[in-house]
Amino acid sequence: MNGQAITPSPEMLPAIPGHSSAHPPRPAIPTVGLVNGFFEWFGGLGTFSWRVLRAAVTPPYEWRELIRQLDEVGSQSLPLVALAGAAVGAVLSMEVRSSMARFGATSILPSAVVYSVIQEMGPTITGLVVSGRVGAGIGAELASMKVTEQIDAIEVSAINPYRFLASTRILACILMLPLLTVAADASGVLMGWVAQTLVQPISFHQFIVTGFAGSTLKDFLPPTFKTAVFGLIIGLVACFQGMRTRGGAEGVGRAATNSVVLASLFVILADVVLVKLILVVFQ
Amino acid sequence: MATALETPTSLQDPEEHSRPSVVAVEDLFKAFDGHVVLKGIGLTVRRGETLAVLGRSGTGKSVLLRLIVGLETPDSGSVCINANSIAALSLDGLNAVRMKMGFLFQHAALYDSLTVGENVAFPLEHHRRDLSKSERGERVNQLLAEVGMEGNLDKMPSDISGGMQKRVGLARALALEPEILLLDEPTAGLDPISSGEIDELVLKLQRERQMASIVVTHDLHSAKTIANRLAILDQGSVIVEGTFDDLQQSTIPFVQEFLSHS
Fold first, then answer.
1. Helices A78-103 & A168-199, crossing angle to 10 degrees?
2. SS3 for B237?
3. Fewest 10 Å CB contacts: which of A76, A138, A240, B68?
4. Residue A153 in contact with residue B171, Cβ under 8 Å?
5. Is A250 near chain B, with CB under 8 Å?
6. Which residues pair with B45 in a beta bridge?
7. Which helix (H) or strand (E) is A123 found in, with range?
C-alpha cells in the first residue's frame, strides 16, 4: 500500500564476501508501517461511515440521484448476475448429479440444487459479481471525480458530497443486492432444472415441488436478505476508496482495483459471520 | 520568511477604503506533511474589487483559494467572509457562506457525466428548488448567454474546448449570484485569444455585478487587465501588494525578476 518501504528479500541482496549464506542478514520487517496503515485505513473508514450516515439521515434527500443509482446498480447488473446465477445452477446440477448417482440418491437432486443455490451460491455469487462490476465502477467514478476536482466543485457548490455521492450509492447497493440475489437464485434454479432435464427429463413443476418440499420462508429469506450487508460493504468500501484517492490516472486505477479486491474479500469474510449468525438465530 | 511586506494598496478611489472587507485573510499558515506552504498570509478584498494573486508554481496560490472556500482548514490564522470567521461555522453555516461564493477551478472541474446545461443547472437544482423547471431552464440559458456559450446546452464537457469549459465553469460559478468570485488560473492553458476573451468576460461581470474577486494566476498580462490590486507570493508569503504601478516600482529582486520574465 501507499508509502510502505519495500524490504528486499535475502535473494535480492548482493552477496557479501566472507558472509555465511546460511545466516543471511535479516531484513527489517515493516511491521510498524503495516500496523499503522491497518489502523489508519479502518479509522478512515469509520470516520467516513459516520459522515455518510449523518448525511444520509438528514434532509435534503437526494431522491433523483438515488433513483439513478438504483438503475445503475440494479438494472445494469441484472444480466450479469442472472448469467452468473444460471452458470452456477447448471454446474451445480451437473456436479451434484454425478456425486448423487454414486449413492443412488438422484431423487434428492432438485432439493440439493434449490437449497445450494438459494442458501449459499446465489447470494455469494451475487455479492462477488456486484463487487466486481459495481465496486470497480463506483471506485473508478468517484476517484476520477476526486482527481479532477469534481468532488471539490460539488462541495463548493454547498452540496454535501457524502450525501449526494456516497449515501445514494451505498443505499442503492443495500436495496438492490437482495433483489439481484432473487434474480440469480431464479436463473440458477431454472438452469439447474435445464441441466437436470437434459439428462433425465423432469417437468419444471415437478422439479420445483420436489426442490422446495418441506422448506419454509426462514430457509430462504435470511440468506437473501443477508446480501443487504454485502451491499453495504460493497458501497461503503468502493465510495471510501474512490473519495480518498490521490494522484492522477494511477490513483484512479488503484482505487478501482482496491475497491474490487477489498469489497470481495470483505464480502467473503462477512458471509462466514452471517452464515453462522443465521444458523444460530434461525435454526 | 520572505522579505518585509511592501507598502500595500494604493487604491485610486478613496471611497473604496471605506467599503467593508468582504474577504479578510489574517496571518494564515498552512503546511502539508511538514512542508509549510503558506506562512502568515494576510489579504483583504472589498466589494467590487478584484485582487490578483501571482507567484511561481507551488507557492500556495491555489491553496489560499481552497482555504478561503473552506476546502482546506488552516493550521493557524483566520479567514473571514463578511466579517464572520469560517472556522467557527458548522457545516450548514459554511455551506450558507459557500452559496455566496462562486469558484472557477483551474481545469473547470465540470461534471463529466452531465451536459453543459445540466452542469450549470446543478447548483440551481439543489439550492433554488423554488424555481420551476422552466424558470431554471431560462436561468441556465441566460447564464450560458452571458458567457457566450448559448447553443451548447446539450453538449458534453468532453466535446468542448478548454476555453469553452472555463466559460461553462464560470457560468456554473455564477448560477447562485455570488457576492464573491474566486478564479483559479482562469487563463491557464488557453491560447492568447481565448485568454483575452476570458479576461473580457471577467471584466464585464465585474462591471455588471460588482462582486469581490480573487484571481490566482501566472499570467501577469491578464492580472494587469482584470485586477485593481495585485499581490505577489513567494515562499508562502506576500512579498508585495499594490497596483501594477506599485509593483513596477518595487525594488525587491524577486518582483523585478517576476515582472521581467512575464
1. 40
2. strand
3. A76
4. no
5. no
6. B23
7. helix A122-130
pLDDT band per the 50, 70, 90 thresholds, residue B205: confident
Residue A118 is classified by DSSP as I
CATH of the domain at B178: 3.40.50.300
Q: B239 is written with which cell numbers?
A: 512579498
The vertex-B111 CA angle with B110 and B112, nearest 5°, equals 100
Question: Does residue B172 sit within a domain?
Answer: yes
DSSP code at position B59: S
**Rounded Cα distance, B171 and B178, in Å:** 11
pLDDT in tens, A112-144: 999 999 999 999 999 999 999 999 999 999 999
Burial of B237 (0-12, 13-18, 19+ CB in 10 A): buried
Mean pLDDT (whole number) for B226-233 = 92
Does residue A46 sit within a domain? yes
Does B24 map to a domain?
Answer: no
Q: A23 vs B250, which has greater pLDDT?
A: B250
A57-80 b/e with 16+ CB inside 10 Å = b? eeeeebeebbeebbebbbeebbeb
Q: B126, A150: Cβ pair inside 8 Å?
A: no
- The Cα B225–Cα B103 span in angstroms is 20
How high is the ipTM of this complex?
Answer: 0.88
Residue A204 falls inside a structural domain: yes
User: Which residues are bridge partners to B242 per DSSP?
Assistant: B230
The predicted structure's pLDDT at residue B230: 93
- Rounded alpha-carbon distances, angstroms, from residue A106 to A100, A205, B245: 5, 17, 95
For β-strands B21-32 and B101-104, DSSP reports them as unpaired
Burial class of residue A198, CB neighbours in 10 A (0-12, 13-18, 19+): exposed
User: Among candidates B77, B19, B25, B79, which has minimal Cα distance to B48?
Assistant: B19
B-chain CB neighbours of A150 within 8 Å are 109-112
Per the structure block, which three cell numbers stand in for A251? Answer: 490513483
Looking only at the bridges linking them, the beta strands covering B237-242 and B229-234 are antiparallel
Asked if B32 reaches chain A (Cβ–Cβ under 8 Å), the answer is no
The distance of A153 to chain B (nearest Cα, Å) reads: 7
Do the Cβ atoms of A197 and A207 come closer than 8 Å?
yes
Please state, in angstroms and as integers, the Cα–Cα distance from residue B198 to each residue in A12, A273, B47, B205, following that order.
56, 59, 21, 11
Least confident residue range of A165-174, B66-75, B153-162, B252-261: B252-261
Contact A80, A129 (CB under 8 A): yes
Q: Is A149 on the interface with B (CB under 8 A)?
A: yes
Predicted TM-score (pTM) of this structure: 0.84
- Report yes or no on B255 lying in a domain: yes
Q: Which three cell numbers stand for residue A102?
A: 454414486
Q: For chain B, say whether A150 makes contact (Cβ under 8 Å).
A: yes
Which structural domain range is residue A41 located in? 31-282
